[in-house]
Amino acid sequence: MESVILGFATIVAVIGVGALVAHLGVVDLGAQQVLSRVAFFVASPALLVTTVADADVSDVLSRGLAATVVAVVIPAATYVLIARWRWRRSAGERVIGALSSSYVNAGNLGLPVAAYVLGDAALVAPTLLLQLLVLQPLALAVLDADVRGTRPSVSEVLLRPFTNPLTIGTLVGLLLSITGWRLPPLVADPVELIGAMAVPGMLLAYGISLRLGPGFGGDVPPGELALTSGLKLVVQPLVAYAVAHHALGLSGHALLAVVVCASLPTAQNIFVHATRYDRSSTLARDTILVTTTGAVPLIMLVVWLLG
After folding, report:
1. Cα dist. 61→64, 126, 127, 132 in Å?
2. Distance CA 46, CA 66 (A)
3. What is the DSSP letter of 182?
4. Is 1 a residue whose pLDDT tops 70?
5. What is d(CA 139, CA 219) in angstroms, rounded to the nearest whole number?
6. CA 282 to CA 305: how far, in whole Å?
7. CA 15 to CA 161: how far, in whole Å?
8. Domains of the chain: which residue ranges?
9. pTM
10. DSSP string covering 72-141
11. Which residues are CB-contacts of 4 (< 8 A; sequence separation ≥ 6)?
């Protein structure tokens, strides 16, 4: 339990530094754009190479993966349907809202939580790889098409993600994981060093936005923020539990792992994507804030009930 608190405290501390330097005038709002772009185009792809390369791909072929898929699809689809009918959101805005409702912080928070709370960092691999290899490429393809003002064709959805730096980083890491190859130190060391910028860069950019960006809620309808936060904190963990336990028969540690992963808060990189494509960045930012705050007691409750 202490490790869960420590993981969240570390994230909050780095976000606080970003807000502090913005408050003191060390950086302006333009720094948030720069940090976000560096994280998106440079640091995150490098981080994905090293993270996916170390994951055991065989872990994806598990019953827990099916529960994870359903637990992502239901809240994401619920948001898309409601947002299109209630708030008339564009395709790109619906993508960011759907990701805010279902895309968990499986990297910089999920990995340490899996290691210190569940006892095995590999337990987050199904969630991590599902997001990196399926959800993220599809979402970015739609966002690319929405920015250009065109409807994505089937071939575009299938091919365009492979021009995205995040997808390329993921695929390189997957290739290394499958083959067992290792990058030579002359290449691996700079990649690891650059990748280490990704998480603090995203968190600092997020802190700057909290201080200098629109106030909490901004122009986002309170009902929409409540919807994304509720889908993430309530619906996703409940669906994961119901499918894993009642439909797939998981119990004990395997069940705990699935539900804890589903209880993780919205990932910070959703804010990076929202900023990069200028789609619903305030909604993404505030959902991250609400779910990160709410995930602390939620994960503690899950561990207490199922641990």
Report:
1. 8, 8, 11, 16
2. 28
3. -
4. no
5. 23
6. 34
7. 29
8. 2-306
9. 0.81
10. HHHHHHHHHHHHHHHT---HHHHHHHHHHHH-B-TTTTHHHHHHHTSS-GGGGHHHHHHIIIIIHHHHHH
11. 113, 116, 117, 296, 299, 300, 303
What is the C-alpha separation between 226 and 237, in angstroms, rounded? Answer: 16
Tokens representing residue 170 in the block: 């993921």
**pLDDT tens across 60-90, in order?**
557 788 999 999 999 999 999 999 999 989 9
Distance CA 106, CA 126 (A): 10
pLDDT on residue 243: 96
CATH 1.20.1530.20, domain 2-306, yes or no: yes
In this structure, which amino acid lies at residue 175? L
- Note the pLDDT tens digit of each residue in 100-133: 999 999 876 787 788 777 877 768 878 887 888 8
For the chain, percent of residues with pLDDT exceeding 70: 94
For the chain, percent of residues with pLDDT exceeding 90: 50
Of 307, 287, 267, nearest to 47 by C-alpha is 267
What number of residues does the chain have? 307
Query: CA angle, 68 as apex, 51 and 270 as ends, to 5°?
Result: 55
Radius of gyration of the chain (CA): 18
- pLDDT, tens digit, 9 for 90 and up, residues 185-210: 999 999 999 999 988 898 898 889 88
Alpha helices in the chain (DSSP H): 2-23, 29-38, 44-53, 63-86, 91-102, 110-116, 125-130, 136-148, 154-159, 165-179, 185-195, 198-212, 222-230, 236-241, 252-263, 269-277, 281-306
104, β-bridge pairs: 266
Query: What Å distances lie between residue 52 and 101, 127, 262, CA to CA?
Result: 24, 12, 19
